[in-house]
Amino acid sequence: MAGRILTLAFLLPLTFAFSDTFPVVAWSSHKSKSLDVLSSVHSPAGSDSNVIFESILSTGDICDNDAIVLVDQPGLHASDLRALSPSSPLTTLISRSPSSIQLPYVRHTTDSSIHDFADSVSTRCGSRILSFMPGQGGTSAERESRLVKELESVESTFPKYLVIFTGSPSHSAYARRQSEPAVGSAFGALQQPGNSTLPEGGILKRYQLLTPALITSLLVVFFILLPVVFFGVSALASIQSPLHVEAPKGFNAQERKNQ
User: Which residues cross the membrane (predicted)?
Assistant: First the structure.
């Protein structure tokens, strides 16, 4: 099963109205009791953001999701969602979900943000946070298309997921945390997730330094090459300098010359 991923996506603000409220739209790929309860308990207006996020992200089965996608669009207003066509890709994606909730006017609270809830869920579920920012250019339809493309990538990669699409005050857009670089689709690298945590211990536990090839090379050096070199040096040291040619005994060079 694919590893659990918690994702935050940031989009450009569309409008600036009612800065103290923003909509919250959530849907899941499976039947979600928390979403169904929220849709019947909370009124369309006057909801508190902390209460909403707490109700969705603090349930006992939240860690059963393979991926939790949190889409934060600064400056988003309910009128932006009402302006979407019933046949738009985002509307179609939400309408075909087994469970969904739409709260158009949620009051912003300064106690905690969606980022704080993301950190809390990541710690609780032992998941990692993938934060990225889609391209900022283009029209609203083009930005919606990019968002839907990423969400469809999540849908094809993770069989069990939860999406929360919400807004935040536009001034908080400048306080975004540092995001990880994404190449192509932000979820392309998650098809085969890996564990990036280094094991505890010394360097020999973290990295395999003594490989079979290295061990074989060391054996050859110590038991073959070094003895051969030592033997060669010893043999060269034992070779003496050639002796000078000496005249035989009884030989007199002067007498030999007189003869």
Answer: 214-239
Pick from 107, 25, 119: nearest CA to 73 = 25
Nearest-angstrom CA–CA distance, 15 and 79? 9
The DSSP output letter for 159 is: S
Rounded CA-CA distance 19/168 in Å is 8
Nearest to 94 by CA among 173, 39, 16: 39
The answer to whether the predicted template modeling score (pTM) of the entire model surpasses 0.90 is no
Pairwise CA distance, residues 205 & 122, whole Å: 27
* Ordered DSSP codes for 91-138: HHHHHTSSEEEEEEEEE--SS--HHHHHHHHHHHHT-EEEEE-----S
What does the alpha-carbon distance between residue 123 and residue 119 come to, in Å, rounded to a whole number? 6
Pair of tokens at residue 69 = 């996608």
Condensed to tens digits (0 to 9), the pLDDT of residues 21-67 reads 888 899 999 988 888 877 776 555 567 888 888 888 888 888 888 98
E-strand spans in the chain? 5-10, 21-28, 47-48, 67-74, 99-107, 128-132, 161-168
150 class by beta-carbon count within 10 Å (0-12 exposed, 13-18 middle, 19+ buried): buried
Could you give the C-alpha distances from 202 to 178, 196, 207, 214, 215, in angstroms and in order? 30, 17, 9, 19, 20
